[in-house]
Design brief:
With about 300 residues, this protein is an alpha/beta fold. It has helices at about 30-35, 55-65, 130-135, 150-155, 160-165, 175-180, 185-195, 235-250, 255-275, 280-285, 285-300; strands spanning about 5, 10-15, 20, 25, 45-50, 65-75, 80-85, 95-100, 120-125, 145-150, 170-175, 200-205, 210-215, 220. Helix 3 links the parallel strand 9 and strand 10 (about 145-150).
Length: about 300
């Protein structure tokens, strides 16, 4: 069984969309990634930090999903990272209302000894120095290092971010971030520039318009499944990443053809995430539901055409 190590936030979120609002609920990039990856036959672990205000029931939920939580540090008398946001009517843009780093401000990750040989290392959205520390603690070079980042780090820590990008095999960012990182409007040109920075594969997420995978001049596109109801996009990108790395870890195949399959699996799981607030939908997702929707993706993208 393949081993997947996930570095990222485990947090509280408070969310407001046109369809309702929540008080503090379970959130964080590593949480969404871990829940998505738990749909696959993998050994997974999360490395993160929380305060002792973080409910034990949330940690138990991750354990029940088969996620190793020995790398989640619990700080006595500490407060857990908290983010609050409000989405516009179209759900494509949001305003951050509150960001409280709390214990995350002094986070120094410690990789559990039994996961320093992980096959896949997933670097969730964090300070590049924290991501670099995780890479340096690995005893064996992972088959695949996958990086997620955002425009905040491009604006504030670009030199450190470039160092991390050099050491990764796959980067997943959205279209706006790809353009900012490269100063190229064309996503094809942007992907080429990012390849030159180090990653073999570039995944550019386009929200409700799907995702693009680039490798050596080849391009693969995965659509987003049209849904009847979308309640909350929070965590959809992280859920995509969790499905992507979960599938690759289980299949133990990092070829371009298999990464195409991984993109579809990521998009499939992300389509569930947005149907409820926070992690609610992902907590009780069944394999039958996942398989049925995968078949919908297949029907959406498969066609026969006669070339004359």
């Amino acid at each position: 069984m393949g081993k997947l190590l996930i570095l990222g936030t485990v947090a509280f979120d408070a969310i407001e969309t046109p369809f309702g609002k929540t008080d503090k609920i379970l959130g964080g990039a590593a949480t969404f990634i871990g829940l998505a990856a738990s749909q696959f036959k993998v050994e997974s672990a999360i490395v993160s930090i929380v305060g002792d205000d973080f409910p034990k029931t949330y940690l138990e939920l991750l354990k029940k999903k088969g996620v190793d939580i020995s790398g989640i540090e619990v700080v006595e008398n500490g407060k857990t990272f908290f983010w609050s946001g409000k989405y516009d009517n179209d759900l494509n843009s949001r305003d951050t209302l509150v960001t409280e780093l709390n214990v995350l401000a002094d986070f120094k990750p410690v990789i559990p000894a039994h996961f320093r040989d992980a096959d896949v290392l997933m670097l969730g959205n964090l300070h590049p120095a924290v991501q670099l520390s995780a890479i340096e603690q690995m005893q064996a070079e992972p088959k695949l290092i996958v990086l997620d980042t955002m425009n905040f780090w491009m604006n504030n820590t670009l030199p450190e971010l470039i160092e991390v990008i050099k050491k990764t095999d796959v980067i997943t960012i959205n279209d706006e971030e790809a353009r900012q990182l490269t100063n190229e409007y064309s996503l094809v040109k942007a992907a080429q520039k990012i390849h030159e920075m180090g990653p073999k594969y570039v995944v550019i997420k386009k929200g409700e318009n799907g995702a693009l995978l680039f490798h050596n001049g080849e391009v693969f596109f995965a659509p987003a499944l049209p849904l009847e109801e979308v309640f909350d996009p929070t965590g959809a990108g992280d859920t995509f990443a969790g499905g992507f790395v979960g599938y690759l870890t289980e299949s133990e195949n990092v070829s371009f053809n298999n990464l195409r399959n991984a993109v579809i699996h990521g998009a499939n799981l992300a389509s569930f995430c947005v149907e409820k607030f926070g992690t609610e939908r992902m907590q009780n997702l069944s394999k039958d539901e996942v398989d049925r929707r995968l078949n919908q993706f297949k029907q959406l993208t498969q066609f026969d055409i006669e070339l004359k």
